[in-house]
Amino acid sequence: METKKKDTQIIKTFVNGAIKIIKNHHLISPKALEKIKKRYGLGIKTDIASVVNLSNVTFKGSIGIFFPKQVVIFLIRKMLKQNASNLSRNLENGETNLGVKYMTMNPIIILPFATNFGIFHIESTTQK
Predict the structure, then answer these.
(1) How many Å apart are CA 77 and CA 26, to the nearest integer?
(2) Residues in contact with 74: Cβ distance below 8 Å, sequence separation at least 6, in sequence order
(3) pLDDT tens digits for range 46-80
(4) How many domains does the chain have?
């Protein structure tokens, strides 16, 4: 049970840090929605993502943040205070509906957050 508490604390630290950065840099307050377990066919659209795999003596797992295109454009507008209507060529070239595969049989937890322009989410799973 102690390991689960440590895993939860590491994931909470990442989530809190990511939301704090979004609040500070984009001047918005994303609203946390109810967490859900990821399953095939859930239909969450993702265009831009960043996934981090962590492995040390106290935690082994993956944590990622996932955005649909319209939320990324909204965040860029808020941060730069410019009327962006599309992504840069660099981001567009890498844009795809991502299908991230985790090497675990453990549940993948999705933590969705609502903004005025759509929903983004954070995913986490552990590998034991």
Answers:
(1) 8
(2) 115, 116, 117, 118
(3) 888 888 888 888 888 999 999 998 888 888 887 77
(4) 1
pTM of the predicted model as reported, rounded to 2 decimal places: 0.81
Place of tokens 């990324």: 72
3-state SS, residue 47: coil
Amino acid occupying residue 61: G
**Residue 42 belongs to what domain range?**
2-126
Longest CA pairwise span in the chain (Å): 49
CA torsion sign for 31, 47, 123, 37 is positive
CATH number of the domain at 83, please: 3.40.1550.10
- 81 vs 6, 17, 25, 52, CA distance in Å? 39, 23, 11, 29
